[in-house]
């Protein structure tokens, strides 16, 4: 049964919350310029210090509302509850949620709720499921319109993976039955189209905790003109333009092949002088 959620914001704004879907005519805005920010969390627990950094960077304390989009998960009610709680526990009561569902048409009121959100928050689950709902739709376009207005798009785990133009799906093409990425090989790590807010880097998450070095090293050599960014749990990067700042409890690793062509022996990849930087809380780096 479809559930409809509604939240009264500032006694004037009512969220028309419900399940919605794809339309065939939608497209991203032509421009990718914006004054918006990204808050990209590597998954895991989200301590109050991390949530407060997200709130402060978004400007939510000065007004506006947060909106939870739980389409990555098969348990949207739970994701909405926990997503809202992290805001209300830290002083933000103006929080709504919309669970868009493929196959049903979004109302203009729902799309306006997305366009005008001060902060859009995408919880974890499956990045493929999320993009399956929003890709090429008016929903995706509305998310971009919010970003281009200068608002924040935030996400954790799968919600982090969708931020880049080239999105890691989690699928191994050469070794589909393996439980982990045990090889550094060409053509094994599957990519698909993400939301595309970051065009010059690929994002990975749960990075240190789940030892995802092999797949990100493979992608670094296969995409030598892109930086590959591994964000650990309870840690985030705040992206504004081409600048990124680390906040949180752990580390962010950045691999850069510096444009060099990889060597190949069969499917095995090789490269020399790959640049690795390991950033801690408070460190800043450039995406370009």
UniProtKB/TrEMBL annotation:
Residues 1-21 form the signal peptide. It comes from the Bacteria. It catalyses: [L-4-(L-arginin-2-N-yl)aspartate](n) + H2O = [L-4-(L-arginin-2-N-yl)aspartate](n-1) + L-4-(L-arginin-2-N-yl)aspartate. The keyword Protease applies. InterPro entries: Class_I_gatase-like (IPR029062), Peptidase_S51 (IPR005320), Peptidase_S51_cyanophycinase (IPR011811). It is an enzyme of class 3 (hydrolase). GO terms for biological process: proteolysis. It holds the Pfam family Peptidase_S51. SUPFAM superfamilies: Class I glutamine amidotransferase-like. GO terms for molecular function: peptidyl-dipeptidase activity; serine-type peptidase activity. Keywords: Hydrolase, Protease, Serine protease, Signal. Belongs to the peptidase S51 family. PANTHER family: CYANOPHYCINASE. Exopeptidase that catalyzes the hydrolytic cleavage of multi-L-arginyl-poly-L-aspartic acid (cyanophycin; a water-insoluble reserve polymer) into aspartate-arginine dipeptides. This is Cyanophycinase. It comes from Roseivirga seohaensis.
